[in-house]
Amino acid sequence: MSNKFQEIKDAVANHKALSKFGHVGIVTNNIDFMKALLQSYGQWNDYNGTVVADTIEIIFEMLPRVYYNEGNPNNGNRNFKSVNIHSDSLITLSMYGTLSEDEIAIVKRIIDTYGQLMKADERTLTIDDKCGQYKEYTIRFWWD
Fold first, then answer.
1. I want to staple 53 with a disulfide (CB 3.0 to 4.6 A). Which of 30, 35, 86, 129 is the partner?
2. How many Cβ atoms are within 10 Å of 69's Cβ, its own excluded?
3. What are phi and psi of 120, to 5 degrees?
């Protein structure tokens, strides 16, 4: 077993142990850790940890990438920076920046299509304009 895998396994076990005291949220951009944690929740009602983990990974990869200007070394980075796992029933993906109307339409289609695949009871995109020229975009998936 690799050290990285063991670290992820230990982190998931620690998170699950703390969960008995209430909802313990976690923010990550480590796809391996995110998948392990979501899979660890198993299956209940319409939630299937393996399907959710694989689907969130696909969504994370499909979302728009940044482009600032020609030659900018940050071009092509993920626009959505983190996956927030609030509990086994609430997952959000967050970013700050600016999306075009076309990009927003694409994100909404991704949310709807893949939210249905994951059988999420709620799948929404909220846009908060509190940061001036940049906006906060939050994708929310919730299972009842």
1. 35
2. 7
3. -70, 135
Compute CA distances 75 → 69, 71, 72, whole Å: 8, 8, 6
Q: How far apart are CA 74 and CA 37, in angstroms?
A: 29
In contact, 90 and 142? CB cutoff 8 Å: yes
Whole-structure pTM value: 0.73
DSSP string, 90-107: EEEEEEEE---HHHHHHH
| Sign of the torsion formed by the C-alpha atoms of 41, 45, 48 and 51 | negative
DSSP line for 102-127 = HHHHHHHHHHHHHHHHTT-SEEEEEE
Instruction: Name residue 141's beta-bridge partners.
Output: 91, 123
Q: What is the mean pLDDT of each run of 10 residues along the chain (144 residues)?
A: 60 55 61 80 84 85 81 81 72 82 91 92 90 82 88
**Three-class secondary structure of residue 74 per DSSP:** coil
